[in-house]
């Protein structure tokens, strides 16, 4: 199958990007035997614009996307976070390629109203929509055109390359990185942990908070590779099965992941794949416990890594998106399909 994926390839970061979900999906399509062409809307708009001013290149980029679709003639188009691509362009692609199937995937949270509006605007123009939140939150999009489905964040063996559950010597006990200066719950938790772990022997590295600069690219990978445990904290907790892609990065690399019970992931994961906490006091207590019980830490991290890399790989998720979009019977074993 010929697949055209449209989304931000982060080319203009010149290698200093964090894990790129776009690349994971490209890898997944290729492993399943598909011919993939990736079109980076933001990079192309900047490339086509005078002086590299992206906003001046949006119109030209949309025309080039239509031309790309006409030339490549894909069987399947996957739209990512490509807000610069207009629905008019999607309609023109359909007119030029009446047999093409088009899906849209969104990995941002539904507690951000701007993101909800973005999804609503795309739903009538595509065949299927895939969202990394599950449950009742998806009901608001149903009945407006596209089929609505949940997907987990993918893990990729070419990107999540570490196995910290087997490492004998790791520099950091607890790892977290974020890009939040506003008064969110996760900032409150980070500050609480910093204070609560003062005077203990727990080495807690929280990049992007306080005086600790954020890290990107290889610096991010290096810090991740040195860590025993990781915090899976979102700006807001409680949306069913929602997490940023850091959960795949933590578990896929063999870190012991601490996950808020409010996410509901304990209903999807096998037993003892991660450590679930109720509140910040419970989290602090469990961090100290697993710092002092390293064999238990390794056992859960190992099981979590094996579980995530068995069930939520990039190729499984891309296979699922194709099967759902084309409307046939599900061939693969998709643990999340009923959520």
Written account of the structure:
- The protein has 339 residues and is of the alpha/beta class.
- It has two domains: 2-154 and 313-326, Rossmann fold, CATH 3.40.50; 172-311, Rossmann fold, CATH 3.40.50.2000.
- The chain is built from eleven helices and eleven strands.
- The strands form two sheets. The chain has a six-stranded parallel β-sheet, with helices on both faces.
- Strand 3 (76-79), helix 4 (87-96) and strand 4 (101-106) form a beta-alpha-beta unit.
- The chain is globular and about 65 Å long.
CATH architecture identity of the largest domain: 3-Layer(aba) Sandwich
Radius of gyration: 21 Å
Structural class: alpha/beta
Q: Count of DSSP helices? A: 11
Strand content: 15-25%
Q: What is the CATH homologous superfamily assignment of the largest domain?
A: Glycogen Phosphorylase B
Task: Estimate the global geometry from the Cα principal axes.
Answer: globular
- CATH class bucket of the largest domain: Alpha Beta
Secondary-structure element series: EHEHHEHEHEEEHEHEHEEHHH
The side-by-side strand order for the widest beta sheet comes to 2-1-3-4-5-6
Unreliable runs, pLDDT <50, ≥5 residues?
none
Q: What's the CATH topology label of the largest domain?
A: Rossmann fold
Q: Strand count, sense and closure of the main sheet?
A: 6 strands, parallel
Overall pLDDT: 94
Keywords, please?
11 helices; globular; 339 residues; Rossmann fold; 6-stranded parallel beta sheet; 5-stranded parallel beta sheet; alpha/beta; 2 domains
Which secondary structure elements does this structure contain, and how are they paired or packed?
Layout: E1 2-6, H1 21-31, E2 35-39, H2 41-48, H3 58-72, E3 76-79, H4 87-96, E4 101-106, H5 113-122, E5 128-131, E6 147-150, E7 172-177, H6 185-196, E8 204-207, H7 217-225, E9 227-232, H8 246-252, E10 256-260, E11 275-277, H9 280-292, H10 294-311, H11 314-326
Helix pairs in contact: 1-11, 2-3, 3-4, 8-10
